[in-house]
Design goal:
Low-confidence stretches of chain A: none
Oligomer: homodimer
CATH topology of the largest domain in chain A: TIM Barrel
CATH architecture of the largest domain in chain A: Alpha-Beta Barrel
Radius of gyration of chain A: 24 Å
Order of helices and strands of chain A: HEHEHEHEHEHEHEEEEEEHEE
Strand content of chain A: 15-25%
Number of helices of chain A: 8
Chain lengths: ~325, ~325
Amino acid sequence: MATAPQCRAAFQHGVRRLLMANQLVGQANMAIAAELIEAGADFYCVVDSVENVDQLARYFSARGLRLQVLIELGMPGGRCGCRDTDEVMALAERIDSEQALVLAGLEGYEGVVHGDDPERSVRAYAWQLVEVAQGLERDALFEHPAPLLTASGSAWYDLIAGVFREARLGQQFVPVLRPGCYVVHDHGIYRQAQREVLARQPALQRGLKPALEVFAQVLSLPEPGLAIVGMGKRDIAHDQLPEPLRRYREGDERARPLSVEGWRVTKLMDQHAFVRLPAGDEAMGGGRVRVGDIVAFGASHPCLTFDKWRRLCLVDARLEVMEVMHTCF
Amino acid sequence: MATAPQCRAAFQHGVRRLLMANQLVGQANMAIAAELIEAGADFYCVVDSVENVDQLARYFSARGLRLQVLIELGMPGGRCGCRDTDEVMALAERIDSEQALVLAGLEGYEGVVHGDDPERSVRAYAWQLVEVAQGLERDALFEHPAPLLTASGSAWYDLIAGVFREARLGQQFVPVLRPGCYVVHDHGIYRQAQREVLARQPALQRGLKPALEVFAQVLSLPEPGLAIVGMGKRDIAHDQLPEPLRRYREGDERARPLSVEGWRVTKLMDQHAFVRLPAGDEAMGGGRVRVGDIVAFGASHPCLTFDKWRRLCLVDARLEVMEVMHTCF
């Protein structure tokens, strides 16, 4: 998870071991973490500054609690995290001196690597994580019996896992990968990332299948070759423009999928999508498009689409609703 | 409003006269509108196609209801709407032949004008709306005693209002403007649009003041000149990058605002903002920035920020919470 409220929601739904791969900052967030720990959660967060370590030590010692923290190792020009080994070691000593804090591992995020050869940079970063963790272990700075070593977003998890395996990490550490996009996968950015994973790992037989779709109806066919659909930035993420997948004729009880070959979203406004249609209705198979046709779209990416909806429907292959799920964020 | 569920939410909160400035498409949406009408709402929606007119007539006559519709006049290359006067007149005849439909006005949206001289195009479009409405009136195609003539988003409402006034519309029609962004205003796109309104209308003494802010804390200061703040695309709209407004020291009971002069958001990830700080801490007035500092950001634009939150806090000048408001979408 990335925030204290997200951890609370997960705990309320039965997840007892919580890794917040982010800094725990602010009294309100610390209070949430403290309540989770008091309620029995095995809670971890990350630190990357003396200032934050001091704040956490003060708060958790006042509450009579011990907080498990992982040091974040970042990279120059990256996001959060200590910039080099010396910083990590100094911070570990500081944590060691604080009774309220338990150094329980090392954390990184390789999704912000730069450069022309990201594959090489990601592997180099993963090795750096391993070496820094081994240094901390050697200096007996971990207080946790099974320290965590964790990295990986949804694009490079195979490389991170590969380095962790090569390093035989499992003997000293608990390796934890953190790709999130697999939950429903994606029709854009992460589909491309997944293709690259498969290209790097020929032994993998199959990749993930995107499972999140947003349905909307054609509102207007105002000009040849243009459909306006009732779906906008308020309904779907727009890191990339949504991808038309299929359409259905409203009222068709068998929900037969009709083609959207050649359809292309060209613009997304708050409540409307502009869809360019191929020249000639014949080209579309499945009959002339009509006002009211229901179009399924793929989103990129899922997290920002979840934000838009308070309820998601789990459907079977015939689009029958099997379960209505409530989103928490 | 733009959708049937939005109209239902407004009605549930006491709004009885509902203009859905969008096509009413699909059985589920028509059912919502029918329920609103049965519950006493004065409900209007727009139409721009024979196909949709037929669908609506079939649905509402089967339910024994009459639906008030406005014809949408669009523009070539624009969004929804009839592309010319002939199309409007033909559609009005069709509506006239349907017992279940009441032609109650003419609708337009000038926010999609193109060209080098948008001011002139917007005024020309407003005049076209007036003339088409007068044509419909002349041919006795309005069935409503006080037909609506409506246009205007949040960027050009002064020009639309100006034309409606010059045309002395009030004698024949009920003119309705539809800017929405005034509700809380904006720190980006619409602030710029508002400046242009004030430049065009020197008689206006004051413009709108932005009233929506998102607060987040500094998580990390990993390199000189860089702050990572715990606010991302999951928390704030990103049509434009958020604007840092002020900061506060956590724990300062008087909530004294500290300067963020020279701060600039350079990148927004899902849960993090990258903020470039000016060289030298001295430049920041109000003291060195610290992990935990609370930063207020302005958003562009509000609708897409509302989406992100289930509750908004109404605060006074000292940031004391006066009311917690629940969002409906």
